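Let us work through a complete example step by step.
Step 1: write down the sequence.
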Amino acid sequence: MAHNRVKESCSDQAVYYLVTNRIAGGRMLFKDVEKYKLKELLFAGCAKLSYQVIDYVFMDNHFHLLIKIPPTSSMDDVELLNRYRLHKQNDEITFINSAQKDDFRDQIHDISFIIGNFEQRFVQWFNKEKNSWGRLFGQRFDSEMIEVSPQSDSLLRVMAYISLNPVRAGIVTDPKDFFFCGYADRLAGGSVGESDQDFFDLFCHGIEA
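Step 2: predict the structure and record it as tokens.
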């Protein structure tokens, strides 16, 4: 599936992105401990920035994320300040002026800032754990905006594409048995929220890998 980096204004409507990145040289560096950390950082960022994780999968040398960014207009000033303080890790800090407030609002609704922050935090942790340095990912992440409408099944197809990664890789025969994906997470009532199991069974098994 080809991915093109796209930036879209989300002031009045939610925007969905399929995000992908790979380890430099195709090295298989994401073991279970790294995948746990990726998941931890991904969901921790939801409270500090402005996005929702709709789906994800962490493989040994790459990841796919389906990210929803809500409209910028949906966040009031009180919530914005709370997230600013969480992001800065300072309960007393406040915005200097309205321009700084507007800049931060735009930042936390921007896919480049969101994923850049996520990857930077992970690389810092990884390099510290492994006593290494330098680039981990082969290139800047790719993102593709996904059409979401009653007339399109694009969102479901993307979710199936993500969920079926471990099936295509021959790791499992059913994505519910792969711990590091949103499909299994949902069935277990985990971080991606509650959803109807029959619905996800239908589209995951109804679309070919």
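Step 3: interpret the result. Residues 15-150 form a domain with the Alpha-Beta Plaits fold (CATH 3.30.70.1290).
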